[in-house]
Amino acid sequence: MATTSFDKKALERDARVDGHFDALVIGAGFSGLYQLYCLRDRLGLSVKVLEVADGVGGTWYWNRYPGARCDSESHSYCYTFSEELSREWEWSERYPGPPEILRYLNHVADRFDLKRDIQFNSHVKSAHYDETANLWRVATNAGEQMTAQFLITAVGCLSSANIPNIRGLDTFEGRWYHTGQWPHEGVDFSGKRVGQIGTGSTGIQAAPVIAETAAHLTVFQRTANYSVPARNGPLTPAFQRYVKENTAEIRNVTRASVNGHPWLIEDRSALETPPAERQALYEKAWEIGGLRFRAMFSDLLVDKKANDTAAEFIRNKIREIVKDPATAAKLADIDHPYAAKRPPIDTDYFETFNRDNVTLVDIRATPIERITPRGIRTSDAEYPLDIIVFATGFDGMTGSLLRMDIRGRGGLSLAKAWAAGPRNYLGLQVAGFPNLFMVTGPGSPSVLCNMPVAIEQHVEWITDCIAHMRQHGLKRIEPNDEAMDSWVEQVNAAANATLLPDAKHSWYLGANIPGKPRVFMPYAGGMAHYRKICADVAARDYEGFKLST
């Protein structure tokens, strides 16, 4: 990456006076921190990060619900751009929780002196493109106005909480919480009757912990889910040494793998493996735990019959673990292929339903009719509750972008441009919105990947692109319509080559948000292949983009 020399003190002084920057970045999570570092420290640009929270962390600043953990292994859920950073930081657990991830991100922010260019408690209200000046004009809820040539959204794929519109919520006399907006002081469930709505990844993590102290937990399940034990635990000194001694090799594996994890998918077919051997391999993967389970065979996500072998193995495990046959049947009544939705990993989730103080309610059979002052009423019963926990996920991938008033050339709103679903090029840019970049936007591997791996690739591509523009006197960049149309076709083709679209109720398709267009949003062609596509586009003078002076 090229560097640019300038009078930094003068530029910082001017930036404070008129609010103009070379680049504005929205969000101070993994994406925003690294984008700030790359643009400021590698290119020498004036950069300001706007963050709605009062600290860094992004998703992990807000996600503090009971049982919250990362589902990527800690030694790969981190930055790889600095050898020194990799050597000095030491993770304590296989799957870190929010406090440890926040300590890590604060360490990064302090180590690279990033906080001086982050403005906290700043909620971006609007971002409008001024075509005459070739500037983005950004306004906050506090009335501040800032301008920048480049605007980069680092708002996260899962940061816009989805609170379902259930009739009567405003009448509830108890307390209610969404897992993505959890009180930092925590919630005391002791002696309380708790209702949890949602059994996706978050609900599967939260239920066992809530059940430990609640007087009673009622889990309202719409969609039954697969889950594999996480087998979380402290990292041994030997493994921590291995990580420090093999950082380059681990990084290379994550970049070569389909999902950005530090292992490769085994080159063997579930269907071609003899049943007894296949069963033994599944048992081994179950004991290892975590997302490595789906890497045991290469055909699980492309062949329904192969997938059925994994699905039935997990269903049988549910039936073995859960003592009550009726409850086990509800938990095993899963309507989609394994890993076609985000595959959860857990600590004692199914075991939780063996507790005397836990009840499972199937709301496909008996739907929720309303929330009453004293609890939740389904079609056949009312459940008295003191606390309701919404583990109902997020308006994934597009929600945080569309909740801002982003307008491009001619006042075109991003919401209107995406009325039929997110249409862009490489998940990076949208025609009509010059110099607006999205980090891990829809149309990129993002949520199908170990996120820091995807984030580093996107941030580095954006940084190299801006460096190229400055070196060649180019002032604006946006994709052409043909490139966007072609990319949308490639995203659809990649998804349709897998079983992922078979999960009709998946948030990958926006199915959890009423009225949201049903479009498969992430790129399913694999992180390694996507990296090559992006590199080839740049090598061919940013093919598919219009660059101008």
Write up this protein.
With 549 residues, the chain is an alpha/beta fold. It has a domain at 8-160 and 396-548: 3-Layer(bba) Sandwich (FAD/NAD(P)-binding domain). 33% of the residues lie in helices and 16% in strands. The chain has 17 helices and 20 strands. Strands 1, 2, 3, 4, 5, 6, 17 and 18 form an eight-stranded mixed β-sheet that branches. The chain has a five-stranded parallel β-sheet with strand order 7-16-8-9-12, with helices on one face. Helix 2 (30-42) packs parallel to helix 15 (451-471) and helix 10 (304-321) runs antiparallel to helix 11.
Question: Beta-strand level of the residues, as a percent range?
Answer: 15-25%
Q: Indicate the multimeric state.
A: single chain
Q: Quick one: how many beta strands?
A: 20
Distance between the termini: 21 Å
Describe the main β-sheet briefly.
Answer: 8 strands, mixed
Runs with pLDDT <50, length 5+? 1-18
Mean pLDDT: 93
Structural class: alpha/beta
Report Rg.
24 Å
- The assigned CATH architecture of the domain at 8-160 and 396-548 is 3-Layer(bba) Sandwich
CATH top level assignment of the domain at 8-160 and 396-548: Alpha Beta
How many helical stretches?
17
